Amino acid sequence: MVGKACGVEGIPPGKYCEPTMTTVGSQDTTGPMTRDELRSLACLGFSADLVMQSFCHTAAYPKPVDVVTHATLPDFIQTRGGVSLRPGDGIIHSWLNRMLVPDTVGTGGDSHTRFPLGISFPAGSGLVAFAAATGVFPLDMPESVLVRFTGTMQPGITLRDLVQAIPYTAIQNGLLTVEKAGKKNIFSGRVLEIEGLPDLKCEQAFELSDASAERSAAGCTIKLNKEPVIEYLKSNVVMLKWMISEGYGDPRTLERRVARMEDWLANPHLMEADPDAEYCEVIEINMDEITEPILALPNDPDASAKLSDVAGDKIDEVFIGSCMTNIGHFRAAGKLLADNKGATLPTRLWVAPPTKMDAAQLTEEGYYSTFGVAGARTEMPGCSLCMGNQARVEPGCTVVSTSTRNFPNRLGQGSNVYLASAELAAISSIVGKLPTVDEYMSYMAKVDATADDTYRYLNFDELPDFVDASEKVEISDEMREAAKKLSIL
């Protein structure tokens, strides 16, 4: 993919290159610095095909300086041909991922800019500005580590358990250590390539690529079949047309991206690794052997344990939110809470969907009512507790969180934070402790029984309001021609 973005067949590890940036993301805590860098570069128009700005880190609890940023940064981005979200829209990745073109390369000013399609190399504000302005990115090509899943996912096991199975297995194999002194980390600075889960929905695939940030990987790719990618892009075409109808700018950039997606859909193809590809390391994970949840232990996302090792630990607060969640997680949590029949929770429960579209759909389906009856604190779509600079848990409490990181004091002063699936988090909020494996499986049997209904994703091409809006938007021949030229390049 990097070779394609450089106009050559491939780029070997260690070689310097400058791949074309198809998609660039900027978020609001680093966005003002990126703006300053763009001014220094005298950038009056973006050369990257699509540049997007979000406001997910500061929208819920803005400081005076954030209010100014919210008012001024959108115009700066849009006048240069970029796309600007609005405060309250939600998390950068949950939007940016829906703007991707398969097998292309990008970057972003958030460490979790880890595409489920193609590959991205997150960077600081200066490099993000450079990529946006020039359309290329300076890169010393990293080596790759292959993680290959085999077997079948077992009952009660979630994708978040597979996420944590990666560091858990690496520790067992002596490839990763938790101790900081003399730390070993096979993933650090390398590309994490994942195979063996080809039928994942793209929303699910992002859980795996997202967590590569916690492994300190330079980037992540996931081998998927064409069918889930086609489904995702068809949905995203409708969403982007809806954005145009709702007045999001720059409309020309959105139109060009729609045309480029439709060009790919007309002839869908995905790149695959060479049969004789060489890797720095190959890690095999047999899903048949994962029969209970795997959690990240407090204060280090690498430190891992099975649920049976920590069951019974008292839990004070629970957070269900962050870019690691999608609408299926909130339905699962809602159904578990509904079965609790409004009983008072022994924990404080926080709920923050990733986008305003998720929040609207969950409201329409009655889940917000369930959260309200349970006494949950519902936050504006966005980063919420995960960011650690907005809302905070009580000092010294023990938390189960679906967020990305659990470093000391991140969610609250002196807090001890387990990272786990939304399902385990919801169960912990009901029982007030980390459940036993038997207790967990008893609750999960109810979730698995309605899995087809629970784990439905936001396919905008099936939602009448979005379809009706998209039908009013016509993509010009000029944009279609531009998209075809970009696809050839």
Automatic annotation (TrEMBL):
<keyword id="KW-0411">Iron-sulfur</keyword>
<dbReference type="GO" id="GO:0047456">
    <property type="term" value="F:2-methylisocitrate dehydratase activity"/>
</dbReference>
<dbReference type="GO" id="GO:0003994">
    <property type="term" value="F:aconitate hydratase activity"/>
</dbReference>
<dbReference type="GO" id="GO:0051539">
    <property type="term" value="F:4 iron, 4 sulfur cluster binding"/>
</dbReference>
<protein>
    <recommendedName>
        <fullName>Aconitase/3-isopropylmalate dehydratase large subunit alpha/beta/alpha domain-containing protein</fullName>
    </recommendedName>
</protein>
<dbReference type="Pfam" id="PF00330">
    <property type="entry name" value="Aconitase"/>
</dbReference>
<keyword id="KW-0408">Iron</keyword>
<dbReference type="InterPro" id="IPR018136">
    <property type="entry name" value="Aconitase_4Fe-4S_BS"/>
</dbReference>
<dbReference type="InterPro" id="IPR015932">
    <property type="entry name" value="Aconitase_dom2"/>
</dbReference>
<dbReference type="InterPro" id="IPR001030">
    <property type="entry name" value="Acoase/IPM_deHydtase_lsu_aba"/>
</dbReference>
<dbReference type="InterPro" id="IPR036008">
    <property type="entry name" value="Aconitase_4Fe-4S_dom"/>
</dbReference>
<dbReference type="GO" id="GO:0019629">
    <property type="term" value="P:propionate catabolic process, 2-methylcitrate cycle"/>
</dbReference>
<keyword id="KW-0479">Metal-binding</keyword>
<dbReference type="GO" id="GO:0006099">
    <property type="term" value="P:tricarboxylic acid cycle"/>
</dbReference>
<dbReference type="GO" id="GO:0046872">
    <property type="term" value="F:metal ion binding"/>
</dbReference>
<dbReference type="GO" id="GO:0005829">
    <property type="term" value="C:cytosol"/>
</dbReference>
<dbReference type="InterPro" id="IPR015931">
    <property type="entry name" value="Acnase/IPM_dHydase_lsu_aba_1/3"/>
</dbReference>
<feature type="domain" description="Aconitase/3-isopropylmalate dehydratase large subunit alpha/beta/alpha">
    <location>
        <begin position="84"/>
        <end position="432"/>
    </location>
</feature>
<dbReference type="InterPro" id="IPR050926">
    <property type="entry name" value="Aconitase/IPM_isomerase"/>
</dbReference>
